[in-house]
Amino acid sequence: MIPLSEHLKLRQAEVDAALDRLTPAETTLPETIHKAMRYSLFAGGKRIRPALCLEAAAAISDVAPGVFEAACSLEMIHTYSLIHDDLPALDNDDYRRGKLTNHKVFGEAMAILAGDSLLTLAFQTLTRAAGLDAAGKVALMEELSFASGTDEGMIGGQVIDIESERLPPTAELLARIHRAKTGALLRASVRMGAVCAGADSAQMAAISRYGEHIGLAFQIVDDILDVEESSEALGKTAGKDAAQGKITFPAVYGLETSRAMAAAECTEAHAALEVFGERAVRLHQLADLIVHRKA
Amino acid sequence: MIPLSEHLKLRQAEVDAALDRLTPAETTLPETIHKAMRYSLFAGGKRIRPALCLEAAAAISDVAPGVFEAACSLEMIHTYSLIHDDLPALDNDDYRRGKLTNHKVFGEAMAILAGDSLLTLAFQTLTRAAGLDAAGKVALMEELSFASGTDEGMIGGQVIDIESERLPPTAELLARIHRAKTGALLRASVRMGAVCAGADSAQMAAISRYGEHIGLAFQIVDDILDVEESSEALGKTAGKDAAQGKITFPAVYGLETSRAMAAAECTEAHAALEVFGERAVRLHQLADLIVHRKA
Question: The domain at B4-292 falls in which architecture?
Fold first, then answer.
């Protein structure tokens, strides 16, 4: 078995090829919007959500029709949310992954529309899921649209996050923000892979538990890195959470307890994978990677 | 048969009730985003797209499962596009339908997220289309996602519109902008109603032709009204097209020829309805209404 880092590079190349195929070319009219969409889509993202989607499917079956479309739709939603988050009216960030943010290159109007376009393209992409039956496509759309929505979904988490700046950082509020803001989409990532692989209900329950635990671990580590790492290592402005008065895990629990919590979530994630046996080896490795990453 | 105006009032009440049922309550957490979504969703829209969807279905069958969800998804897309269009970085409008625009009430950050939320909710809504089979739901998603996208769809039209300000107003450019910017979604409105009603391919072709002609008529009349009517009558800033150097039908063809073109499109729309016989009476009336409206 090749090491995870090699494996992820191959997967990333496959995902990038699928994204390229599923996104209108830069020469498709009107060119500007397609250039703006592609600028952020190919700005060096780590493709964590697509990787989770693909490996969840692989843990269940060798055959998973539509799994690349599912993986790409997740990356499109993630990318649109970053473009809009970076806008002056929201986080007002000039850099993302070490490159200028979308609105710094294309202007605010085009950045707003590029975000809208990627959000729309995500759902278009699911209608094109190759080889998947209509019921499977509808199941994917349910997962993606609820996970990225307002009610316990991604946008809901962003709103609570914005509104609770400078509020007393309580454990309950923190849990609610992160379950919605990043947790819902990470959970949907593995569930969508499982849908494509034809998971039964026990498999779906197990993969959901895995998704919830690595989702929380991911966010705890993100908050820790914002405190510990340099802007250079992160490719974005470090220390922003504290400067903006954001409610974070280190702010609520301190760094040491936060590290212990991330490790505990990782252990729970491993436990959830038991039903999949040997097939889940990449999901086990991804859980460890998420907790031990440096950016 | 009751007059169209009465009929539309009843339909509008049904659509409003469905929108209310399909959109999270103002008390659903996080409250602000749901208030912002509802503010624009219930700001006095004429519900033209839902009406076209419902009447297209009625022209084909008495039974059209999921048609209210289809109708509401169209209004959600239309409303999100208005919220984002009105933002300072785009058209920078303070009023819409005689009320303050979303960002003037809720701030830019929340207006951006409210638009994103309505776009997401539109696709969520289609997954909930009551009584429609999975193949029908996927067909609705194809229609909606392509009509509102960048490649010959709504966002594409907005981008060309923005980029061609101050360019020489040619007939070809004008046709391209409007086919995409408003035409695609109006065409999708009748096609989605037809999908719910189980249209055969001849009926789908006829309803598409109708949709294309009333779509063009609608836009020509919109451009004429921007020149002729007061801001008060329109509920938005009149004369903005000329001030912004937009390419409009009056700018390319003059007012008199524009009026004749709208009438000709209306005639073609009527002709397209022939296959539906008596069942299409409301679609005939809607075509006339679109051409003779004053706001």
Answer: Orthogonal Bundle (1.10)
